[in-house]
What does this fold into?
Amino acid sequence: MKGAELKVSPFFWAAAALMWLLAGLPVFVATASAAILHELGHAVAVAAFSGKIRAVRLEPDGLLLETEFEKLPSYGGELVCIAAGPAANAAAGFLFAAFARNGGFYLLAGVNLALAAFNLLPAAGFDGGRIFLLVTARFFGPDRAERAARAVDVAAAAAVTAGAAWVYFNGGGGLALLCAMLYIAGRIMYNR
It folds into this structure.
Protein backbone atom coordinates (compact mmCIF):
# COMPACT_ATOMS: atom_id res chain seq x y z
CA MET A 1 0.00 0.00 0.00
CA LYS A 2 3.05 2.17 -0.34
CA GLY A 3 2.20 5.40 -2.09
CA ALA A 4 -1.53 5.01 -1.55
CA GLU A 5 -3.45 8.17 -0.78
CA LEU A 6 -5.30 8.31 2.54
CA LYS A 7 -8.82 9.73 2.22
CA VAL A 8 -10.67 10.39 5.47
CA SER A 9 -14.37 11.19 5.55
CA PRO A 10 -15.22 13.76 8.23
CA PHE A 11 -17.96 11.39 9.34
CA PHE A 12 -15.41 8.63 10.00
CA TRP A 13 -14.25 10.33 13.19
CA ALA A 14 -17.82 10.81 14.41
CA ALA A 15 -18.66 7.15 13.74
CA ALA A 16 -15.45 5.96 15.43
CA ALA A 17 -16.10 8.11 18.50
CA LEU A 18 -19.71 6.92 18.68
CA MET A 19 -18.65 3.28 18.47
CA TRP A 20 -16.02 3.81 21.17
CA LEU A 21 -18.59 5.45 23.44
CA LEU A 22 -21.38 2.92 22.83
CA ALA A 23 -19.34 -0.29 22.68
CA GLY A 24 -16.31 0.54 24.81
CA LEU A 25 -12.60 0.47 24.11
CA PRO A 26 -12.09 -3.34 23.89
CA VAL A 27 -14.83 -3.77 21.26
CA PHE A 28 -13.61 -0.69 19.39
CA VAL A 29 -10.02 -1.99 19.24
CA ALA A 30 -11.14 -5.51 18.26
CA THR A 31 -13.38 -4.14 15.50
CA ALA A 32 -10.72 -1.75 14.18
CA SER A 33 -8.09 -4.51 14.11
CA ALA A 34 -10.51 -6.87 12.33
CA ALA A 35 -11.30 -4.17 9.74
CA ILE A 36 -7.59 -3.56 9.12
CA LEU A 37 -6.97 -7.31 8.77
CA HIS A 38 -9.91 -7.54 6.34
CA GLU A 39 -8.47 -4.84 4.08
CA LEU A 40 -4.98 -6.37 4.32
CA GLY A 41 -6.50 -9.61 3.02
CA HIS A 42 -7.84 -7.73 0.01
CA ALA A 43 -4.51 -5.90 -0.46
CA VAL A 44 -2.47 -9.12 -0.53
CA ALA A 45 -4.79 -10.64 -3.14
CA VAL A 46 -4.77 -7.45 -5.24
CA ALA A 47 -0.96 -7.49 -5.20
CA ALA A 48 -0.95 -11.17 -6.19
CA PHE A 49 -2.89 -10.19 -9.34
CA SER A 50 -0.49 -7.31 -10.11
CA GLY A 51 -2.87 -4.66 -8.87
CA LYS A 52 -2.11 -1.54 -6.89
CA ILE A 53 -3.85 0.20 -4.04
CA ARG A 54 -4.50 3.79 -5.15
CA ALA A 55 -6.16 4.96 -1.97
CA VAL A 56 -7.32 3.85 1.46
CA ARG A 57 -10.62 5.45 2.42
CA LEU A 58 -11.78 5.77 6.01
CA GLU A 59 -15.58 5.95 5.87
CA PRO A 60 -18.19 5.90 8.64
CA ASP A 61 -18.85 2.24 7.93
CA GLY A 62 -15.21 1.16 7.76
CA LEU A 63 -12.11 1.03 5.62
CA LEU A 64 -12.26 0.75 1.84
CA LEU A 65 -9.52 0.23 -0.72
CA GLU A 66 -9.45 1.86 -4.14
CA THR A 67 -7.58 -0.43 -6.50
CA GLU A 68 -6.28 -0.34 -10.03
CA PHE A 69 -5.02 -3.06 -12.33
CA GLU A 70 -2.91 -2.76 -15.46
CA LYS A 71 -4.91 -5.68 -16.81
CA LEU A 72 -8.21 -6.53 -15.15
CA PRO A 73 -8.20 -10.00 -13.58
CA SER A 74 -10.59 -12.69 -14.77
CA TYR A 75 -13.85 -13.38 -12.93
CA GLY A 76 -11.91 -15.91 -10.87
CA GLY A 77 -9.12 -13.46 -10.09
CA GLU A 78 -11.57 -10.78 -9.07
CA LEU A 79 -13.41 -13.33 -6.90
CA VAL A 80 -10.15 -14.14 -5.12
CA CYS A 81 -9.44 -10.45 -4.52
CA ILE A 82 -12.92 -9.88 -3.10
CA ALA A 83 -13.13 -13.07 -1.04
CA ALA A 84 -9.68 -12.50 0.49
CA GLY A 85 -11.02 -9.96 3.00
CA PRO A 86 -13.71 -12.19 4.53
CA ALA A 87 -11.32 -15.17 4.30
CA ALA A 88 -8.70 -13.29 6.35
CA ASN A 89 -11.32 -12.52 9.01
CA ALA A 90 -12.65 -16.09 9.06
CA ALA A 91 -9.13 -17.53 9.41
CA ALA A 92 -8.28 -15.10 12.21
CA GLY A 93 -11.60 -15.77 13.92
CA PHE A 94 -11.08 -19.53 13.94
CA LEU A 95 -7.47 -19.10 15.05
CA PHE A 96 -8.43 -16.82 17.95
CA ALA A 97 -11.23 -19.22 18.91
CA ALA A 98 -8.83 -22.17 18.92
CA PHE A 99 -6.47 -20.40 21.31
CA ALA A 100 -9.08 -18.60 23.39
CA ARG A 101 -8.31 -18.84 27.06
CA ASN A 102 -9.68 -15.46 28.06
CA GLY A 103 -12.30 -12.92 27.07
CA GLY A 104 -9.93 -10.95 24.82
CA PHE A 105 -9.37 -13.84 22.46
CA TYR A 106 -13.08 -14.71 22.47
CA LEU A 107 -13.84 -11.09 21.60
CA LEU A 108 -11.31 -11.11 18.74
CA ALA A 109 -12.69 -14.43 17.51
CA GLY A 110 -16.27 -13.20 17.61
CA VAL A 111 -15.58 -9.85 15.96
CA ASN A 112 -13.54 -11.43 13.14
CA LEU A 113 -16.13 -14.15 12.47
CA ALA A 114 -18.97 -11.62 12.58
CA LEU A 115 -17.14 -9.29 10.19
CA ALA A 116 -16.50 -12.18 7.79
CA ALA A 117 -20.16 -13.25 7.85
CA PHE A 118 -21.44 -9.67 7.64
CA ASN A 119 -19.26 -8.90 4.62
CA LEU A 120 -20.54 -12.00 2.85
CA LEU A 121 -24.11 -10.65 2.76
CA PRO A 122 -25.09 -10.98 -0.90
CA ALA A 123 -26.04 -7.31 -1.18
CA ALA A 124 -24.66 -4.19 -2.83
CA GLY A 125 -21.89 -2.51 -0.90
CA PHE A 126 -20.65 -5.76 0.66
CA ASP A 127 -18.09 -8.26 -0.58
CA GLY A 128 -20.84 -10.87 -0.78
CA GLY A 129 -22.82 -8.66 -3.14
CA ARG A 130 -19.89 -8.40 -5.52
CA ILE A 131 -19.23 -12.15 -5.24
CA PHE A 132 -22.91 -12.86 -6.00
CA LEU A 133 -22.77 -10.56 -9.03
CA LEU A 134 -19.56 -12.12 -10.40
CA VAL A 135 -20.71 -15.72 -9.95
CA THR A 136 -24.12 -14.98 -11.44
CA ALA A 137 -22.55 -13.09 -14.37
CA ARG A 138 -20.19 -15.98 -15.04
CA PHE A 139 -23.07 -18.42 -15.45
CA PHE A 140 -25.92 -16.25 -16.74
CA GLY A 141 -24.30 -13.16 -18.26
CA PRO A 142 -23.92 -9.60 -16.97
CA ASP A 143 -27.46 -8.40 -17.75
CA ARG A 144 -29.19 -11.24 -15.91
CA ALA A 145 -26.69 -10.91 -13.08
CA GLU A 146 -27.56 -7.22 -12.63
CA ARG A 147 -31.29 -7.99 -12.53
CA ALA A 148 -30.75 -10.81 -10.04
CA ALA A 149 -28.51 -8.62 -7.88
CA ARG A 150 -31.15 -5.87 -7.77
CA ALA A 151 -33.76 -8.38 -6.61
CA VAL A 152 -31.41 -9.78 -3.95
CA ASP A 153 -30.61 -6.23 -2.77
CA VAL A 154 -34.29 -5.41 -2.28
CA ALA A 155 -34.82 -8.70 -0.42
CA ALA A 156 -31.71 -8.14 1.75
CA ALA A 157 -32.73 -4.57 2.62
CA ALA A 158 -36.24 -5.76 3.49
CA ALA A 159 -34.87 -8.62 5.61
CA VAL A 160 -32.48 -6.33 7.50
CA THR A 161 -35.27 -3.79 8.09
CA ALA A 162 -37.66 -6.50 9.30
CA GLY A 163 -34.91 -7.97 11.49
CA ALA A 164 -34.17 -4.55 12.97
CA ALA A 165 -37.83 -4.00 13.80
CA TRP A 166 -38.21 -7.47 15.28
CA VAL A 167 -35.11 -7.14 17.46
CA TYR A 168 -36.07 -3.65 18.60
CA PHE A 169 -39.70 -4.41 19.42
CA ASN A 170 -38.87 -7.70 21.14
CA GLY A 171 -36.44 -6.04 23.51
CA GLY A 172 -33.33 -7.67 22.03
CA GLY A 173 -31.53 -4.45 21.23
CA GLY A 174 -31.52 -0.79 21.88
CA LEU A 175 -31.95 2.22 19.69
CA ALA A 176 -28.29 2.07 18.59
CA LEU A 177 -28.77 -1.43 17.13
CA LEU A 178 -31.99 -0.37 15.41
CA CYS A 179 -30.25 2.65 13.86
CA ALA A 180 -27.27 0.54 12.76
CA MET A 181 -29.48 -2.05 11.08
CA LEU A 182 -31.58 0.62 9.34
CA TYR A 183 -28.34 2.27 8.19
CA ILE A 184 -27.27 -1.07 6.67
CA ALA A 185 -30.61 -1.42 4.86
CA GLY A 186 -30.24 2.10 3.50
CA ARG A 187 -26.66 1.43 2.47
CA ILE A 188 -27.74 -1.63 0.50
CA MET A 189 -30.32 0.35 -1.44
CA TYR A 190 -28.04 3.38 -1.91
CA ASN A 191 -25.20 1.26 -3.31
CA ARG A 192 -27.53 -0.39 -5.77
